[in-house]
Amino acid sequence: MAVRVQTNDFSVSDEYAALVHNNTADGAVVSFVGRMRDMNLGSTVHGLLLEHYPGMTEKALADLEDHARQRWALGHVSIIHRVGEFRAADQIVWVGVTSPHRGDAFAACEYIMDTLKTTAPFWKKELTKDGARWVDARDEDTQRAERWQ
Amino acid sequence: MAVRVQTNDFSVSDEYAALVHNNTADGAVVSFVGRMRDMNLGSTVHGLLLEHYPGMTEKALADLEDHARQRWALGHVSIIHRVGEFRAADQIVWVGVTSPHRGDAFAACEYIMDTLKTTAPFWKKELTKDGARWVDARDEDTQRAERWQ
Amino acid sequence: MNSVRILFFARLRETLPQAELEWPWASPGSVGDLKAQLRAQGDAWAALDGNILCAVNQTMVKLDAIVQPGDEVAFFPPVTGG
Amino acid sequence: MNSVRILFFARLRETLPQAELEWPWASPGSVGDLKAQLRAQGDAWAALDGNILCAVNQTMVKLDAIVQPGDEVAFFPPVTGG
Question: What is the pLDDT of residues B91-102, one digit of tens each?
């Protein structure tokens, strides 16, 4: 499949359809959608800016797909990460994985998200009533990523 | 949300839309779709019959949702399992879960599928060129379900 | 009520002489007792000997669970949905 | 080529005096050396002292990785996408 970094929105329906099109070998399809929450650390967040490192982001996502394929039996993999400006409930990231095996599909999808969180060069800046603030990396994300090593 | 046992197909697009409708609290959406494969145990499978225990199936799926909610912080949960006759690539089962937390959404979705596989009263019968055969339960499924206990 | 309603599913439903039946059951007893009574009807009921699961009133139970008169009892092979 | 191109992102990009620059780099040396040279320009570059990640030619590396003349080097805070 493909990885994409884009400002425009994606359609879960279209992305799902692409994963299963002409695919009778894979019984399992696992997908993750990351959306903007309206609350974080107690303040109401009314907007989000997502900055990235153009070029490296695409490379980092492609590497994630490669590493996942080395580890699990996967059919199709698609990763989309949006950048730019977001409002509450906007879709930010999509990861879709198909496999003949349910366990492989779940593991690969979660691995990609966990590892993306610590290795792909995206940075979030939240807009709250008290102003803009860069989001700090969370220890929990580091720990979740380390489980896969 | 709801659990449903039905003969008719479901729309991934509609089910996803229902999970996130008016939902700005949950940043994570994980979904699983189980589809009919055209191969199993080395034979080409051209059809599948899915029998169930009416009444108990709905109860078993509702129990799965309850147990998942006791264990993880979940927003919406939907579980759909079809019964009847299937062809290759047909959709059989849908599990969709939302949560403020990515880890909870992944765990709950996988827990529901793993536990469904060993506790919900559905039985598959495969139609192959050599005739019909009941699908045997797999040790792997039992082991996957036991991980959650 | 002095009987239980018994249902069989999947391979059992096809293999046993009956897919469902009413069975005399005047007082509480275990699932294991009920299964033994059914099996004692003859070799046509041998399919009950294998790895068979049981639900009482639509909840999965073990062989030592108690069946009350009026209960719905189901026997079936390990499940294979999903 | 006797320089490297340096990029900063997110909080670093906003905090440091420059968002990107060309830096003289005539022969191979470590990321740690390069970072120390940048930091030595003055306290306006103190933001480099924290927990800062580095990528050379768009691959994440550690401080002991070697930077060649002509490389693209990026410094940035821990990532927070997804």
Answer: 999 999 999 999
